[in-house]
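During the reporting period the student researcher (J.K.) took over the structure-prediction task from the postdoctoral fellow and processed the backlog of single-chain submissions. One of the processed entries is reproduced below for the supervisory committee.
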Amino acid sequence: MVALGLVGLGRMGFNMRERLRAAGHEVVGYDRNLAVSDSTSLADLVSKLDAPRTLWVMVPAGGPTRQTVDELGELLSEGDLVIDGGNSRFTDDKRNAEVLATKGIGYLDCGVSGGVWGKENGYGLMVGGDAAHVERAMPIFDALRPDGPRQEGFSHAGSVGAGHYAKMVHNGIEYGLMQAYAEGFELLEAAKVVEDVPAVIKGWQRGTVVRSWLLDLLVRALDEDPELDDLEGYVEDSGEGRWTLEEAINHAVPAPVISAALFARFSSRQKDSSAMRAVAALRNQFGGHAVKKVGE
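J.K. obtained the following C-alpha cells:
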C-alpha cells in the first residue's frame, strides 16, 4: 500500500482517487471544493502524509499548475516527490522540476489518457523523469493503468517533459481520428442511398479495420441521439492540438491530418466567416458567379 496526496478532484482526479482506493492505496485528496476534499488546504494535505511523501497534481494546465508546484515546493521536504498528471505543456516541466530540485524534491510528468471512463477501464500513462522516481511511483502507476501487460498501458517515455510531450502527440492523433469519423458520419448522412446511418456505424465495431474505442463512443452517442440533433456543431480545443502543430513545424514534420482537424474546430466556432465572404465576393467578381446576400 502506498499513501498518496492528490491535488485536484475534478472529473479526472475524483475518479483516480476512487480507482486508487479500490486498489488498496491510501489517498488523501485536496480540492478547493471542500465538499469532495479530504483536507482543508495544501498545507493540511501535506501534514496528513508521512515522509517521504508523494503528491499527484491534477489541476488545470499553465498558471494553476505552476502555482500549485511552487506552493508545494514551500511545503514539502527533501526526498518528497511531485507528479504532474495534468495536461501541462512539456516546456513547463523543466521549469517545475528545477523549482523543486532546489529543495531536493523529485518531479515526474505524467500524460494521462482515459477520460471519464478511466475509473472502470484504467488510464493510459506516459511518464517523463528519472528512472528511480518512476520505480518509486510504480505501485501508483500500476493501480491506475488498465489491467493486462504493463507495456500496453504504461510507458516511461524519457526524461522530464517526455511524458507530456507523448500525451501532446497522442491528443493530436486523437484530433485527426475524431475528425475522420465525423466526416464519414456527415457523408453517410448526405448520401440518401444510406437509409440507416447509425446502423452502418454500429456495424463497423467488429471485424473492420476502423474499429476503435472512439468508434464505440460514437456509437454510444448515436444510440442516445441518432442524428445528433441535440448538439450544436461547436467544438473547443484544449490547446494540445495547437502545441502538436507547433512542434511539427519546429521539426519540419508534415502533419496535414492533424492541422486540418484543428482548423475544422476553428471553423466550427464561426457563425459567419469573413474569409468565405471574401471567397464569395471574388467568385462573383471574376466569374459573375451568384452570391447569397444577407437576409436572402
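The committee noted the following: The chain has a mean pLDDT of 94.
J.K. will present the remaining backlog at the next meeting.
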